[in-house]
Write the structure tokens for this entry.
Amino acid sequence: MNAQYSKEIAKLISERLIKELPRLKQQYSESKDRIGFFYIDDILPVELANNCFKVFPLKSEMKQLKSMREYKYVTAQMNQHNKLLEDVLYAFQHNDVVEVISEITGIDTLLADESLYAGGLSLMEHDNFLNPHLDNSHDAKRERWRVLNLLYYVTPDWQLENGGHLEIWPHGPKNDPLVIESKFNRLAVMATHQDSWHSVNKVQSEKSARCCISTYYFSPGALRKTDKFHVTKFRGRPNETLKNLILDVDSGLRMAIRKIFRKGIRKNPHIYKEKIKD
């Protein structure tokens, strides 16, 4: 990673956020009683955003995740891909950006995450999807609470009919979701807590893939007093009754394992090993 270049990118991001600070604060404030979120377009210069897409890894260079829970391609090993992507990703972890997002959300204990736990790059092509789910409540060591999810979309000219859009379910996964389009050069930020169900609807496009750079912020404490430790929990969509039953059992079994093995029975592979500190 080019630390200086990443810092320069962070400056661009923070300046863009500050330019729309009142609107972003209002958007998050009006939504935080359910699932707090905000989004902003043109977060980076168009040429830089286009270059992110041009150097995005092929799916053959990423890990496929395919089950009834999800179907997508991911990687967190940033040193194996073009350095620009690492620079951009760590720009979102820079203190300048964290401080502005802290002001937007009113969360004054935000912590960046060098290990990119569950973050990195994701690619979703035709028929890929991500079922409604709650993110794992903690970091890899189960020491800090996961509180914000940052998603930066870099596929040019991505339209509503292409699918592959973020869905948040402010009234739970039995009701209708709110769709936040995965527009090119858009940053979407959402709160993660006990009720922040979210998903990605199925990709319909056969011509291109939805490419996303993502990361999380953590905190010493949970966003809500009622939050409790939980593993990532998936469920079916409102019309997927059988899948929902199966995923409920799946989540229950994984939660039972974590009650016995506090940090799990294997290390989560979706972290940036180059950045892990013993």
Summary: The chain is about 30% helix and 20% strand. The chain has one domain: 3-275.
